[in-house]
Amino acid sequence: MDWIDAEVEAPLTLRVNGVPHSVRIDTRTTLLDALRERFGLTGTKKGCDHGQCGACTVLVNGRRINSCLSLAMMHADDEITTIEGVGAPGALHPLQTAFIDADGFQCGYCTSGQICSALGMLEEVAAGWPSHVSGDLMPAPPLDLGEICERMSGNLCRCAAYPRIVAAIQSYAASREGEGA
């Protein structure tokens, strides 16, 4: 049976946070495991490993995905952004600052996924993508409590910091509107 002895590793170059990383990797490796175990980018967390909690959320070509549900091999030509690529100590992204100002975390385990998801979600709103609770499909919906909660529903927080997470997102979104973004 040739398939038993089949080669399961292949060369792969992933562009993560603007930096190309070349490795030889098992073709069954998830993007989450490649980021954490092969590239040392441990900001992306492994929560449920079933796509149910959102702790592993990263941006791929600007869109949010659960990296635990995606094979690394699928992303050879993509631009992947993890929390490490969003901001850095001393040069935080304004959304990270909003999370700190609003105390939008407790244990912090979900925070990287929450921030990546919020960045992707805000781009979806700016592009006019409706959500389940959007009242009108034409203009960008207002970022009220219901809209944010619906759009962020794939990201769980065991500490229940949701009111502060929403406040951080609203604060950042308002500052972007003030800048004309």
Automatic annotation (TrEMBL):
InterPro entries reported for this sequence: 2Fe-2S-bd, 2Fe-2S-bd_dom_sf, 2Fe-2S_ferredoxin-like_sf, 2Fe-2S_ferredoxin-type, 2Fe2S_fd_BS, Aldehyde_Oxdr_Iron-Sulfur, Beta-grasp_dom_sf
Highest rank taxon of the organism: Bacteria
Ranges for domain 2Fe-2S ferredoxin-type: 10-86
Record keywords: Iron, Metal-binding, Oxidoreductase
Protein name: 2Fe-2S iron-sulfur cluster binding domain-containing protein
Biological source species: Sphingomonas citri
Lineage start: Bacteria, Pseudomonadati, Pseudomonadota, Alphaproteobacteria, Sphingomonadales
